[in-house]
Design a protein that fits this description.
The chain has 467 residues and is an alpha/beta fold. It has 3 domains: 1-34; 64-270, P-loop containing nucleotide triphosphate hydrolases (Rossmann fold, 3-Layer(aba) Sandwich); 275-466, Ribosomal Protein S5, domain 2, CATH 3.30.230.10. 24% of the residues lie in helices and 24% in strands. The chain has helices spanning 70-76, 96-109, 123-133, 148-158, 183-200, 221-225, 324-338, 361-373, 399-408, 438-445; strands at 2-5, 11-12, 28-31, 85-90, 114-118, 140-144, 162-166, 204-208, 228-233, 240-248, 256-262, 265-268, 287-294, 297-309, 317-320, 343-349, 381-383, 386-387, 393-394, 413-417, 431-435, 464-466. The strands form 5 sheets. A 9-stranded mixed sheet has the order 6-5-7-8-4-9-10-11-12, sandwiched between helices. A 4-stranded mixed sheet has the order 13-14-16-15. Strands 17-20-21-22 form a 4-stranded mixed sheet, with helices on both faces. Strand 7, helix 5 and strand 8 (204-208) form a beta-alpha-beta unit. The longest helix is centred in the middle third of the chain and has 18 residues, at 183-200. It starts with a strand and ends with a strand. The model is unreliable at 449-467 (pLDDT under 50). Belongs to the RecA family. RadA subfamily. Keywords: ATP-binding, DNA damage, DNA repair, DNA-binding, Hydrolase, Metal-binding, Nucleotide-binding, Stress response, Zinc, Zinc-finger. InterPro entries: AAA+_ATPase (IPR003593), DNA_repair_RadA (IPR004504), P-loop_NTPase (IPR027417), RecA_ATP-bd (IPR020588), Ribosomal_Su5_D2-typ_SF (IPR020568), Ribsml_uS5_D2-typ_fold_subgr (IPR014721), Rubredoxin_2 (IPR041166). Residues 61-210 form the RecA family profile domain.
């Protein structure tokens, strides 16, 4: 006897809790060891399964069909392709079921038959949610089932145009050993549903649970079998939801869809930048705008900071929405100019958006300098650039697109790295300053005479500009 890993195929003569090859836990299952005779024999192909010349294949069978939700179509590459299988993963309560119920209702409203299989909730619970978000349609068929054989029978009987399974971990097959959600069951359920989708050209969406580390639960093979893997993200206490394509055989993987989660369901946000800006038009110290790049989409965000006298002990460093390690690095750089290292520092983004790229470093730096000096920056200012440990401002990609998005929202002043405007068309009416170092940027945007705590007065606005 031998034990084989269901995730990578590693074989061991004894049982192990952790696979030495792929590092997965609890994936070694008992099986027959040694060489196995080949059981699959060659079969004579039928008329419909013969190989065809690639020039004679109709490309129209792989054309995406819009779902009616623009942000979802953006991520999928135009819509759902017949026979495509999409795996939608996300944390509990993020809104996966609500989003798919809305998609199902829109598809049914267009005249297609939709089969929605729920294994986590009762039919009554789904019906109440559909009533709340306005998703009651006669052509939307609902089944609360956890048996794979019954689901396959429903597909044969109803012949739907669109299938949604919520979720793949709740279904199980009586023909396979293992508990629902286990590696063996998930693999069998996914393989059977994918086979049905391909044979019937049935677009299918499978909802998947995620583990503590954020990966899809079940065998890694599941992500390889499906055509599209999407991740639905969002903070529990924020209305913003982001949909990303981790894998996509029919479109790009660098697109991001933005959604607003509210009491009436989920709505797409074609222009999400307004969510990340404060409603107040008054100038306040410690605020600065930046432009984050989410996939191909630029989004204007607002960084807010607060600097206070430190109490006993080490100064506090509290951040929300930005990378804590990068903020600590920026504080170390600023301490050379303002003595900021001796103060309590708080940095946050507006709207709960998370910023991970270094292009917002300069905005964080200027916001902290403004808070330390208790002086607002020049109005309608956006800062774009990465900061090095030496205090140098580095260029970031997509400056032209970022500046255009900022100008669309009424921003008239910008600070970028030296040389960032090369081969870039500056939007009309926007004044852009190119700066080499952090000291130059602070002197360029803080009004003359503003004195950061512990540092010298900032110089009058200076530096190169481009109109």
């Amino acid at each position: 006897m031998a034990y084989t890993c269901t995730a990578c195929g590693y074989s061991s003569p004894k049982w192990l809790g952790k696979c030495p090859q792929c590092g997965e836990w609890g994936t070694l299952e008992e099986g027959s060891g040694g060489a196995t005779a080949i059981k699959t024999k060659a079969a004579k192909p039928t008329a419909g399964r013969r190989a065809k010349a690639i020039t004679g294949i109709d490309p129209g069978t792989a054309v995406a069909r819009p779902t009616g939700i623009g942000e979802l179509d953006r991520v999928l590459g135009g819509g759902l392709v017949p026979g495509a299988v999409v795996l939608l993963a996300g944390e509990p309560g993020v809104g996966k079921s609500t989003l798919l119920l809305d998609v199902a209702a829109r598809t049914a409203r267009g005249g297609s038959t939709v089969l929605y299989v729920t294994g986590e909730e009762s039919a009554g619970q789904v019906r109440l949610r559909a009533q709340r978000i306005g998703a009651l349609e006669d052509r939307l068929l609902l089944a609360a089932e956890t048996d794979l054989g019954t689901v396959l029978g429903l597909i044969e009987a109803e012949d739907p145009d669109f299938l949604i399974v919520d979720s793949v971990q709740t279904l199980s097959s009586t023909q396979v050993d293992g508990v629902p959600g286990g590696v063996t069951q998930v693999r069998e359920v996914a393989a059977a549903l994918i086979r049905a989708a391909k044979d019937r050209a049935l677009p299918t969406v499978l909802v998947g649970h995620i583990t503590k580390d954020g990966s899809v639960a079940g065998p890694r093979l599941l992500e390889h079998l499906v055509d599209v893997v999407c991740s639905f993200e969002g903070e529990r206490h924020s209305r913003l939801r982001l949909l990303r394509a981790v894998k996509n055989r029919f479109g790009p993987t660098d697109e991001v869809g933005c959604f607003d989660m509210n009491e009436d369901g989920i709505t797409g946000l074609s222009d999400p930048s307004g969510l990340f800006l404060s409603r107040s038009n008054s100038k306040a110290a410690g605020t600065c705008l930046s432009v984050a790049q989410e996939g191909r989409r630029p989004m204007v965000i607002e960084v807010q900071s607060l600097v206070d006298q430190a109490g006993a002990g080490a100064p506090r460093r509290t951040v929300s929405g930005v990378d804590a390690s990068r903020v600590s690095m920026i504080i170390a750089v600023l301490s050379k100019h303002t003595g900021l290292g001796k103060h309590d520092v708080f940095v946050a983004t507006v709207g709960g958006v998370k910023v991970g790229e270094p292009a917002s470093d300069l905005a964080v730096c200027l916001a902290l300098a403004s808070a330390a000096a208790d002086t607002p920056l020049y109005s309608r200012l956006v800062a774009i650039g990465e900061i090095s440990l030496s205090g140098e401002i580095r260029q970031v990609p997509g400056v032209g697109q970022r500046l255009a998005e900022a100008a669309r929202l009424g921003v008239t002043n910008a600070v970028v790295a030296r040389g960032a405007l090369e081969n870039v068309t500056v939007p009309p009416g926007m004044r852009v300053r190119e700066c080499d170092t952090v000291h130059d940027a602070i002197a360029a945007v803080l009004p003359a005479g503003a004195e950061p705590e512990g540092g010298a007065p900032a110089a009058a606005p200076a530096g190169s500009g481009a109109a």
